[in-house]
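For this section, I looked closely at a protein sequence along with its fold in token form, which I now present.
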Amino acid sequence: MKARRMQGSRWTPGLAAAVMATGCFSVPPYEPDNAVSFTASAAGGGTATGAGFALRFADGPGFHFPDKLLIDDADVMGHDQAQTCFNEDEVGFRIVPTARITATGAAPAVKNLLVPALRGPAVTQVKLDWATQFNCDATRAPGGTSTYTMFPDGRIVRFDTIADAVSNEIVPSKCACETPSRSEDLLFTISTHWTLARTSFETLSFDSNTNRLPDDGQEVAANFDATCIARDSYQVAVAWPASMASPMGLRTATRGRASLIEFRRDLDLGASQLKAFSYDNSSAIFIERAGCDAAFKRANEHARPSALTINGTSMKPSIRDGIYGGDAGDGLPPGIDLPDKRAELSGTVNSSFAVWLRFPGSTDAIHATLAGKTGAWYMPQQVDDRTWIVWFRDPIGAGQTVTVEPR
């Protein structure tokens, strides 16, 4: 089996009528309550929405990175408008001690294009192509792509690339957006981060204990694959794939701040000069309502993913989009080729999951079957005339086999 790239995302009226059918095939309705969608705005941003949550991408001339994470219509993303330099805020990158690269950061937006790749109902995906420029050397123009893939259960997978091919050596003191107060900020550090609002949460878990939120400036959970921040009505877990850890200094950490909690992965630590660089990173957040134990179970599937066997071949989900058969980063289109028009899925996956399938010919409708399952236990999404993504609401266990085939 070989990967294939998606060609688009569409849903035709005829297809809608077909998948609304119910009965022995247990096909879910065309417009399920937990569908995800993306709506672009006229000012370059947009909003990806699911049941009870949404991720908004900023409008305007600043970078179109996310600037709001809504849970039950309340924004839980971290915001500290006093931070105009390199400290973490919202969602994005830091190249300390230069200006932060976020929706409201001071880094100049040289390139800033947000493009929807998938619009739901099972998966939405948007890609931000961005680039900035250092004030100390106009030839140094870091940039990359940040891809956000959202699923109906509140899983948001983020994959980042960041690179600068120019090798002119620069020193931190000449590039600082303000005079650093800490000695470690006099060295270049490249990191990617999420932040959440301190006032929206009550506890933080990263081991077998429930802890109070870290104090301003306190760093905890160094090199943990997953952490969970919680309040009674909802929880959010943050996960970093263990496979991307590196002996070269790659590390994760959680730090308390006055108005927010930051979750970051440092890609490059403590260099006195910044030469050419190139890094990839994967992370994910999981919105949960059944407690941190449930959130950790889902987060661990991103940090240490389970293998799924598809037509006899065992595979892990793509680290780029969290989908089995998703983007492998090899330049080929996503999708698992199905020579005989049929996919049989087996294995043990401890959370909801999605597969990307490519049928041998035009396929207008599909259905899935699993012994004992009825109702809307899965959600199909057509990508092109041959290619489908199927999201499964429930985990799959030993001895179970899901069959997906044309209807």
Q: What stands out?
A: The chain has three helices and 28 strands.
